[in-house]
Amino acid sequence: MMLSRRSGESGSNAGLAAVKRLIPLMTGLVVALFMFGPVPTAQSSVLPAAASGTLKAQDRSHDNENPDNTLYALYQVFNTSTAAVPLSSVTMRYWFTNENAADPLVFECDYAQLSCSNITFKFVVLSSPVAKANTYVEIGFKAGSLAPGQSTGEIQTRVHHVRWSPFNTDLTYSFIADPSFVYKDTQTVTLYTNGALAWGVEPR
User: Which CATH topology does 55-199 take?
Assistant: First the structure.
């Protein structure tokens, strides 16, 4: 029995000694965590790919009248990509509200650096009107190409009614009233390549 108690005491003493040896190590770990925080988990160094633009549109005011019997739309289209863009794949939409559907619409191209004969157009009536638009005029190009960084140059267009019915420009999504009358990037004139939105924000 004495041998058994001594053996047990010896085992207890050994366990106690082991715990005493661990205390400084555990204390050091707690201090390190307090000072430096937990070791961060590994993070991926791969970042999401940035969206690459292809086109952008600039527009400028012609007048700030309301109501107005003419919607003036003066544009420039820029190729912001690193590859040439065929103009035949590019279309542009000017969004507006037609409150006089009985008076037919007329599109006019007054000037285009790349020639008005190269400009196409069509009016599209929305099946469901959206904020500040129930119609848009879609402008396209018959031929040509935009090199990287190149612009179409100025394109001067107008929309009016046959009988010159007025437009409420407050209800014209793409209309800008800017007293500076200088070209600026616009998000309300939308651009498309092969029918896919490439620039701007469509009205909702």
Answer: Immunoglobulin-like (2.60.40)
**DSSP H helices in 84-175:** none
Residues 145 and 201: their CA atoms lie apart, in Å, by: 24
CB atoms within 10 A of CB 73: 26
Beta sheet of 189-193, edge-to-edge order: 119-130, 133-141, 90-96, 189-193, 196-199
Residue showing tokens 């952008």: 56
**What token pair was written down for 13?**
């003493």
Nearest to 114 by CA among 84, 146, 85, 149: 146
**pTM of model > 0.85:** no
Phi, psi at 169, each rounded to 5°: -70, -20
Structure tokens at 47: 């970042």
Taking a C-beta distance cutoff of 8 angstroms, is the pair 145, 175 a contact? no
Residue with token string 């001067």: 156
| Residue-wise pLDDT tens digits, 41-62 | 333 222 222 224 699 999 998 8
Contact 198, 54 (CB under 8 A): yes
Domain spans in the chain, listed from the N-terminal domain onward: 1-39, 55-199
Strand partners, 74: 60, 156
